[in-house]
Amino acid sequence: MKTALITGASRGLGRALADELARDGWSLVVDARDPDALRAAAAGLGPSVTAIAGDVADPAHRAALARAAGGGLDLLVNNASALGTTPLPRLADQPIGDLAAAYATNVLAPLALIQAVLPALRERRGAILNITSDAAVENYPTWGGYGSSKAALEQLSNVLAAEEPDLAVWWADPGEMRTDMLRAAGEDADAAPPPEEAAAALRRLIGDRRPSGRYRAFDLAGPR
């Protein structure tokens, strides 16, 4: 049985992707900051799930996730993200403390978790999927703080792919999704597609074990 560690799995894309992998028979280690929401999500994922509530920016929590994954990890999904200051400010007004907290969650925590589980992933010739954003590559006004953190995650992924050729390293833009995060950003989340669509596309990426690189869920989706 393959094992995946998915962060931010209580709702949105993380939960939808956990559902996809559970249906495919994967064993899962999942986390989220809200213990009640995580417990509810885990209840629908079947018996092969370990749920650990906590904040990925907390080193002790990351250590607990790595221990739970053990030596048999096939896939790490760095999905947990922080939007940062809301309403989204222009860079001229961006509180630096808020931006530092967003970088801690969106950049430093994924790298630290990668470092913690790399030995297990190398042993299984596994894969890493880092969830990024179109805001990493587009100049959307007021998205500079969040977008720059995702751009940093993309470049870390790009270099990691070169340094770890035996692993599959993907950084994927899921596109707009009907999520609480998009709503908190002030966008019309109700007009966006559900996260299950992006999750199904990412399942294809994982199942096909595409080469390392940047992918968009839109391009991975099946025929429309």
From TrEMBL:
Keywords: Oxidoreductase. This is SDR family NAD(P)-dependent oxidoreductase. Belongs to the short-chain dehydrogenases/reductases (SDR) family. Signal peptide: none annotated. Its EC number is 1.-.-.-. SUPFAM superfamilies: NAD(P)-binding Rossmann-fold domains. GO terms for molecular function: oxidoreductase activity. The keyword Phosphoprotein does not apply.
